[in-house]
Amino acid sequence: MPNDFERIKVFNRDEPDHEKELRVIVKANDRGTPSLEGTCAFVVNVLDVNDNAPMFDKSNYQETIPKDTEPEAVVLRISATDADSDNNGAIEYFINASRPSDASYFTIESRTGVISLARRLSQVGIDYEFHLRAVARDRGTPSRSAQAPVIVTVKDSDTRPPAFTVLPNQTYYLPENYRDTETVIARLRAVSSSPTSPNVYYDIVHGSQEQTNKFRTFVIDEDGSGGAIIKYGGSRQLDYEQIKEYNITVRAMTDQQTGTEVTFRIALEDKNDEVPIFYDTDRVTVTENSPPGTYVAVTTAIDRDGTPPNNQVSYSFAPDSEEFRMFSIEPGTGKITTRVTFDREDKLRPSPFYTIVVIAQDGAPSDIRKTTEPNQAKQRVTIEVGDENDNEPYFDTNGIYRATVDENADIGAKVIDVTAKDTDDDSRIKYQITAGNYGAVFDIDPDTGTVKVKNKLDYENGRQYSISVTASDGKFEATQTVDIEVRNVNDVAPVFDKADYQLQLREGYFSPEPIIKVTAIDPDPVGAVAIVYKLSGPGVYPNRPEDDVFSINDKGEVVVLKALDRDEGTGGREIWDLSVLAWDDGGNGLGSSVPFRLTLTDINDNAPYLIQSNLTRPVIMENKPFDGIVIPVEADDFDDHQRNGPPYTFQLDPQAPADLRNKFSVITIGQDNRAEIRPLVKFDREQQKLYEIPVIVSDNEAADPRAKTGTSRFTVIIGDENDNDMKSGSSTIQVFNFEGQPGLDVAREPVGDQWLTAEFVRRNAYNPRLTGKMPDTVVGRVYVEDPDDWDLPDKTFSWLSGQDYRHFQLHSGTGNITMRYGTPNGTYPLKFQVYDKKFQSTVTADVTVVVRLLPREAVTQSGSVRIKAVTAEQFVSPPDKNTPSMYQRMISELARLFSTAPENVDLFGVQNNGAGGVDVRYAAHGSPYYRKEKMDGVLGRNKKQLEEMFKIEIEQVGIDDCIFETTCRGSCHSHLQIQGNEVHRVQTNTSSIIAVRTEMQYTCGECEQKMPKEICLNDGRWDDTRSRCECLVGYPGPNCEGLTIHFEGTGYAWFPRLTACNASHLGFDVTTSADEGLLLYNGPLAEPTGGVQDYFAIDLLDGRLRVFLNYGSGTVVASPEAKINDGRVHHVDVTWDPQTVTVLVDSCVGVPSCQAAVAVAPGGARFLNVAAPLQLGGSAVPLDRVRALMAWEVVPGWGGFTGCLQNMTFLNRVFDLSHPSHGKDYSNYCSEIVKAKPVIETTPSFLIAFLCCLVCLLLLVLAVVVFRRRNVRTLYKEPTDEMRDTIINYDDEGGGEKDQTAYDLSVLQVANGPIKENGAVAGRAPRQPASVRDFIDDNRQKMDQDGHVWPPDDVRNYAYEGGGSSAGSLSSINSGTDDNDQSFDYLTDFGPRFRKLADMYGGGEDEDDERPPAARPSSIAGESWC
After folding, report:
1. Model pTM greater than 0.85?
2. How far is CA 846 from CA 819, 832, 839, in A?
């Protein structure tokens, strides 16, 4: 097939490339197997094109001539060159004159460029300039040209140019590579024509091309006798291949600037200074078995010398070389042919490749090496012996040609690789199945020999195949038999004996006997032969098997577990569409299903009922005639109306009170399935507002099995008429003014977590966004005693004359009282008058509004209790005038339980819970607010007493529905959501409560929220540069938590509970020398909430840890064998999930003695659900007492723990062990040390040293005692967390009015130390006294007992807040007495230590004050100890 060649680059025949001739080698390959190739070489001559314009050797020409110059005299010579060749480089010269008159004075030789004078210059003046333009044009097509200006100046006849007396030869010859710079090449001499200017100067005119000495290749010098000599300058190397000759123009000049020129040539002689250069030759191929003389390749080299024989190249091999014996080469062309016949598979050679060396040499002795040998070059040529298909393919006799394939293998699945070999490298083997492939179930890849599944296999139809695989290289073939075994797999699901099952049963059926038996068989039994049956559909609950209505056994027998209900209204269904599933291989194989429809026939098991909703309750107006009033009543029945429903019969319940039977009648209306209720008397709403009429409804007498009769209560409302005059009334409204309202959208703030409660409030105590007040809010309505309650349109409300209530607004039509924004705390007695237009009467009404600031901390730390069967209105309303309400009694009881004053209890949340009960939320404080764990824990311990006292049933203490696993099917996290922009009201006639709305929210799938790293507890501060908390000494936790707590065996400490989580982890360090004790307990403290009996505990017994876990279905115990009571620090990890609890001591994975794991008790419960606080170090309630209320079989020991707990974490929570919510007899310093047996050698030197130390110690003790008696006051160092200011002129009530000199608070202070409680150390966190009353009493008693404190008998009575004071504690001054009753402006004079008190008490807020000033609280927590 002929091919055309295309040029892929532009060739340049001229300088600098000189691409005049190109050597081209063409290689051709066929497409056979193997592929063969051939090569040929040819020369491409690059023809010249006229792509270069002539170029003058000068940019301009200037010459002078005497005025008397004779015609035909040579004036000057111009010269130009052209890089093109032939006619494209042949140049003709022309001249043009700028002025037409000047053209006649000169002529030019077109071939040489010599300009001559054409006529005399008699008509032109001296210094006249002829402006000519020289033109050089080549003879190409189209021609190209160049121009240069020529200026000829006419001079005086006496000013003649010098004349050459010695002229150079026309041509000089130099060998290329000439380097002699001293030898004279040419001589010349000129003499001046002017006697006045005898000196002659010489210079070489440098043209614009290298041929005209552009680069100063040649230089000129004076010879000392008035002549000049030309030498080689040495700046450029003379190279014949680049420039063959130079045109040298020498100009002789005089002082009169007259000159003349002479031009000669220096021609270069070619030398053999170029080495042959090979063209690249690709790897070539010669086919094996080719006869001798077969063409192989052509190698080509060029020599860049300019003349032969320097550039004539010949080719050869080295004599006696391998290539010389096997190949031959033509000297003139470089054509290589074979001398022998080659065999690619020749086993004597490791490779089918030959590397030969071709020598190329030129035709003259080398001018480079200065020898008689020519220049030469070598090139390696790689020759491959091409493969020819001259061998048969074959299969390996040791190969494995057996395979096994599963019958359910996918189409295209690999079965086996069948591979043949061929010694011919280029052979391409193709595979095909030629026999044994019955049903075409297999296929083979023709290129790789991989046998694959082509069609679906079936063990039952074919178990063994012997196929023949043929390998062909296109010329020869080989065949191999392959055995393939089909393996049986479980690919057929069980088959039922019926396509579906149907059954009809009577409603209410319940029996242990099977109702139906289903049968399925396995057509291809593999593995276990048993078939497992399952049910799915309505009445089957995989996650709640205890609720299942149906079950099926291994025999396929379906059993009813619960009585079947047909009626949808009672949760049943008429048609139960179930699916029966059958699984082979013992339940681990394939499954199939069939529908099972169970239809229930109705029985009359439901009594009919009346249809009525709250929106359809009829109204009968009081005092109206009853004649003609008819109330229609309709009934319905959950049973089938066709058989067991209507007709219905109605009658008034004969057992109804006589009053009802005398006031109403019930009449059945024919077959309309309805009745009529008719009043028999007039009604008075003031006697009774509504009537619940018991109506007996019976269904069809022919119902199966018998008629049903039921009693429904039908509500009739008596409408009100204003028929009673009113009387004066009084009421009380409690308003809890939430501090986060409305300046902060607290609904977006998660507040249920420990880290966003007290610490958050402490850090933002004076943030203006957190101290906003309640907006204008309707807080209640004016109440007067009036039996009528629908007569509001007849009433008009107004302020009592002379009253000024700037903080409240009254609506005259409704009586609604609106409290304005910014109303200060206090008690506001409001007085109103009410006018009734019907009776033309006016009475007064008193409304007492008590406004108390509700701090955010009070809400976030609030406890809660859920009371059953009590509404919010019943809770806040007093039963009569002489009996306090449950709300008031609860406040008093909470104050008693928490050992605080009633005014320190904020019972702010009373909300109906939608289940017929009420949720009560409360807060209490000594100083500061108590933690919710403490309050709920104390309330939980006294739950039984509260129920007996209030005659109520308490459902939950610490409301948290996460304790019920139905709330979430997995992990459950609860938090209190504060609806900061929403007010909640509980309003009755005489008592109302207005507060912020709260709501418990639950997040499923979440366990613990990690505390943000920017929250720094315990007065720590966030460092932005280091991106971490900077903590005080003793609080090393990541958020400045205290990480250590110590117990002495008599105490305990309460912390937030452990949350319900899918996978829980508790870690801590423990140090103890005790043999037994309760380390941790989280479970009920009294009778459990909702029957939830879960608990988690860790104790010590005989020095071994025991971990107790109860999910409500039984207790399991995990106890590693390793003992930890060696006084050393041991790390404990406890993990639990719905299946297992694991204990690991000291992270010793894989060591049986220090780890234990046990499966949780079987049952439906899967999570740890507790509502009580987590207790460390012991239990506040003996666990044997708790066990008596539970169904526990095993309980931990509840004796106190002696030792130290550190670094306790639960999931993402790091416990702040320095601040328990509640506790006693604990400290935050570990005293445990490792006890080691001392080894002391009692040498004489040791005894002397010991006695000396003992004497020094006794002297030191004596000095301390003497110093203490003399300087007793200096021992009472002031704690950093108490006030040190001296208060001058303290004239408050009870403050020691007669003491006007000065009073030093240090007389009430003692050195820091644990507070004694019943002779034992009370467990309180640093800077957290229990109450002001205890603080003062304890310190006063210690001062009285210390005889060294002056004055010992001085009794001073100070009215500290708390302990019954009307002011309450300083931390809760928001709930103190009315700000209008006292003035505290003097607090501003007490200095910066009292700034907080001055801001909170001093100068009440004005109506126009929108927010208190932003003042940052002191970082010294102790400044609020009182």
Report:
1. no
2. 16, 6, 21
